[in-house]
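Lay summary. Proteins are chains of building blocks that fold into shapes, and those shapes determine what they do. In this project we predict the shape from the chain. Here is one chain we studied, written as its sequence of building blocks.
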Amino acid sequence: MRILHIKLVIFLSLVLLVSGCGEIEFLASGIGGEAEEEHIILKSPRYFLYTQGKKDKLISAEEGTLFEKRMILELHKIKIKFFENGTYVAELTADSGTAFLRDSPQMKRLKDDFILQGNVLYRNVDGSVFKTDSLVWDNAKQRLVCDSKFYMERPTDKGVVVIEGKKFETDKTLSKWKDYGASIRLKSKKK
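And here is the predicted shape, written in a compact code that computers can read:
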């Protein structure tokens, strides 16, 4: 019972420390397993990130491991919902991911960046789909950066634009993008 109480105090202290900055709000998380010196296991972690007081992202996962000293959250079966001015615009899923809860110079990542790996799938409310094996969310630039093989479909009134390539960069709505050496084709609408 005493160990459970200590775990709860550590977890609540962490939540207050992180959410006290006004940018992160943990919703419903439970601690599972044994809390060790260097990390805490979180069952079904879920939290919001805010930009200028507006909901920007909802991050959830089946399980996570918080590395306290580095303030890095390793997530399994991650889902990120993106919002634009508080309105839902897209969803990103992956087998695993790393969330940076503060700047990490040794990994060349800043606070609120994400590295996602394994079956990365991005779906926009306009029907656009983006698939790859690895992807980085660069929060400072508000850009998705892909340095691996990718496949993207974007519906238009004339058909579906298909883009395939090896490197890609875009905003969270997939509307402002750059590709490097990609092929583009149009799949016509069937009548």
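What the prediction tells us: The chain has one domain: 2-188.
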